[in-house]
Amino acid sequence: MARVHTPRIFSGIQPSGGLTLGNYLGALRRFVEKQGQIETIYCLVDLHAITVWQEPERLRHQTREAAAAFLAAGIDPAQSVLFVQSHVPAHAELGWMLSCVARVGWMNRMTQFKDKAGKNAEAVSLGLYAYPALMAADILAYRATHVPVGEDQKQHVELTRDIAAKFNHDYGTDFFPSPEPVIEGAATRVMSLRDGTKKMSKSDPSDASRINLTDDADAIAQKIRKARTDADPLPGSMEGLKDRPEARNLVNIYAALSGETPDALLARFEGQGFGTFKPALADLAVSVLEPITRRMNELMGDPAEIDRILLAGAEKADAIASPIVAEAREIMGMIRGPR
Ligand code: TYM
Prior knowledge:
The chain is globular. Helices cover 53% and strands 7% of the residues. By secondary structure, it is mainly alpha-helical. A three-stranded parallel beta sheet has the order 1-2-3. Strand 4, helix 8 and strand 5 (180-182) form a beta-alpha-beta unit. The protein folds into two domains: 8-183 and 302-332, HUPs (Rossmann fold, 3-Layer(aba) Sandwich); 207-298, Tyrosyl-Transfer RNA Synthetase, CATH 1.10.240.10. The mean pLDDT is 96.
């Protein structure tokens, strides 16, 4: 009989810059919603961040700031495991083991690698190329069954399923589950405020393209006021926004923030222009984000407390992952070692 894997959530965010509204709506807020319903493990993936250059002092700051964002958004260390990837050696170790299972051809199909490498694929780090194998290890070191992510990470979670299936097949086992991407809600792909065809991203050179979780009320209102839109009034349903990516994006952001469906929202705003919609969106965004930013700032006033929470989280994570990786080593034929 096939093994039944205990439901468990794992997800991660790179501390490679300040977190954005995209990270919040597409991931973080949903991490909080899952808490208490199922076992939840959340990770600040610093080993992923260093696949591109990170200024060491900035990386340390951003890792603590991302932890503060998790806590401020409502992640409770008593209910979820919250930790830093590099504190738990199982990730790097299983990452290597799975990079011997994954195939080069699979990596070559990863659209995020192609986007990030651009024309310069020969000059990027080897780590950037192998990144999806490390991500598979993050998930499989906990034998997680569900992975809440934004739309852009779907392909990586699907690759994790392929790697798990090949491992199970090659070694004649059902050791690893086939983790499912969980992509839900109106904001699975929040777009840039300057260009509705591009994802909102912490690495976009234009700060006006995104709302950062560290932005104050004035900055949020100003970015929304200046967001690119068109001159037409809003239609009564999403169908009417098919060819208006910027308008669609703002409507999706509003709906995600207010918890309405985009169609219900449009039924309220039908016929109105952005002169009315944008101030309403700015007020809503500020009312949701301001308390989070305030709490983040308070938490950042006591970095030692953040470190303490992260170290306690790492101990819990290690206690789960280390025996799983030891068993995977044994399945692969390594002699049992000291751990
Ligand atoms: P990262 O750090 O780019 O993003 C973290 C999470 O935020 C989501 N996200 C968005 N959602 C909606 N709209 C956007 N504009 C937007 N931008 C980002 C992402 O989909 C993601 O869920 N490789 C991952 C980190 C990772 C990971 C993992 C995730 C490493 N190991 C294991 C899950 C499980 C990444 O770079 O996410």
